[in-house]
Design a protein that fits this description.
Length: 150
């Protein structure tokens, strides 16, 4: 009985504290971050499927070369967005978004390289490059917004 009462008092005390003191901008941002709700994260997850689909026709000799590199880079886009959401400050979150943008550029370069090696058709390459560039712009817009709000 004493434990429940003690816990109740702690909850009431915390509620009083939160009502009396408004949260700093960074704390508000921290409370609201859920990577699964971010459009850029959703797009990055869908983009991985397209990359995996595009690399199925690559030669077996590229399994540990371009295929591995492009898979790792495309997966790391959404992973860095998610990991950034766990960070306490907007600056840290923005840094992980920056890393995610770097992975986008890496994927774009590997798509171009794969096209030049005739592993990806020019039409498919254009579609993938357009999608990765849209994703880059989206992540950059989120990063800019995060930094402005901090």
């Amino acid at each position: 009985m004493g434990y429940k009462f003690s816990l109740w008092r702690k909850v009431k005390s915390l509620q009083h504290f939160l009502i009396q003191r408004p949260l700093a901008k960074d704390q508000r941002l921290r409370i609201m971050r859920n990577y699964k709700e971010l459009d850029v994260w959703k797009v990055a997850i869908d983009f991985v499927k397209k990359i995996y689909g595009a690399t199925t026709s690559f030669p077996r000799s590229e399994k540990y070369g371009i295929v591995s590199q492009i898979a790792i880079a495309s997966v790391s886009i959404s992973i860095n967005i998610a990991e950034g959401c766990s960070r306490k400050t907007a600056k840290d979150f923005a840094r992980f978004l920056e890393i995610s943008i770097g992975s986008c550029f890496e994927v774009e370069t590997l798509i171009i390289k794969s096209t030049k090696l005739n592993y990806i058709s020019i039409d498919n390459s254009k579609v993938l490059i357009e999608e990765i560039q849209t994703l880059q712009r989206g992540i950059n817009a989120l990063r800019t917004s995060i930094l402005k709000s901090s």
